[in-house]
Write a structure and sequence with these properties.
cytoplasm; tRNA-binding; Rossmann fold; RNA-binding; alpha/beta; Pept_tRNA_hydro; globular; tRNA binding
Length: 186
C-alpha cells in the first residue's frame, strides 16, 4: 500500500490555481481509475485506487497548504507506512512551467506545504513530485502568484503536464522511484 498526497487549498476560490496542481493530479488519477467518491478522513479527502495490483491511497489535505502535515501525519501513522511509501505531489515555482521533477529527499525549496509535511514527518527523506508552475515576475508577490490562475496560453501545456504527472505517480507506485525519475526527470 502506498499513499499519494496531492497538495492544494480547499474551496472553489482556489480551483485551477497554480498552488492546486497537486489536487489536480489526484483528481486525474481518480478519474483514470474510476475511484469511489472520496471520504472525509485525516483532515482531508481520501480515496483509493488500484494500479496494476498496487493499492494507492490518495489524500488531498483540506488543512490549507501551510498545514498539510496535519493531514499527512495522521494518515501516515494510521496505515503504518514508511517514508518510501509516500509521495507528495506539489507545485514548484522554481521549476519552469510544466516541468516535472521527482526526488527521493531534499529541502522544501520554498514550498510551504511540503515544508510542513517534512516537519510533521520529522524527515526530509520523503519522496516528492514537483510540478513546475513557472516563476513569478521579478519583484512580484509570490503568494499572489501561486494563488493565481494559469494564463489561457499556459492551460493546454499544464493540462498535459497534469496527465504526465499522473502517469509518473503510476510508474512510481508500480515500477519504483528510480524508474519514474529516469522516465520523467528529463
Amino acid at each position: 500500500m502506498k499513499l499519494v498526497v496531492g497538495l492544494g487549498n480547499p474551496g472553489k476560490k482556489y480551483e485551477g490555481t497554480r498552488h492546486n496542481v497537486g489536487f489536480e493530479v489526484v483528481q486525474t488519477l481518480a478519474k483514470r481509475h474510476a475511484a469511489p467518491p472520496p471520504k472525509s478522513k485525516f483532515n482531508g479527502q481520501l480515496t483509493e485506487i488500484s494500479v496494476h495490483g498496487e493499492k494507492l491511497l490518495m489524500l488531498s489535505p483540506h488543512t490549507y497548504m501551510n498545514k498539510s502535515g496535519n493531514s499527512v501525519r495522521p494518515a501516515f501513522d494510521f496505515y503504518k507506512l514508511t517514508l518510501e511509501d509516500v509521495l507528495i505531489v506539489c507545485d514548484d515555482f522554481n521549476l519552469p512551467l510544466a516541468k516535472l521533477r521527482l526526488k527521493a529527499k531534499g529541502s522544501a525549496g520554498g514550498q510551504n506545504g511540503l515544508a510542513d509535511v517534512i516537519q510533521k514527518l520529522g524527515s526530509n527523506e520523503v519522496p516528492r513530485l514537483r510540478i513546475g508552475i513557472g516563476a513569478p515576475r521579478e519583484g512580484a508577490d509570490v503568494a499572489g502568484y501561486v494563488l493565481s490562475n494559469f494564463a489561457k496560453a499556459e492551460k493546454p501545456e499544464m493540462e498535459l503536464c497534469v496527465e504526465q504527472a499522473a502517469s509518473a505517480v503510476e510508474d512510481w507506485a508500480t515500477q519504483g522511484l528510480t524508474y519514474a525519475m529516469n522516465q520523467y526527470n528529463a
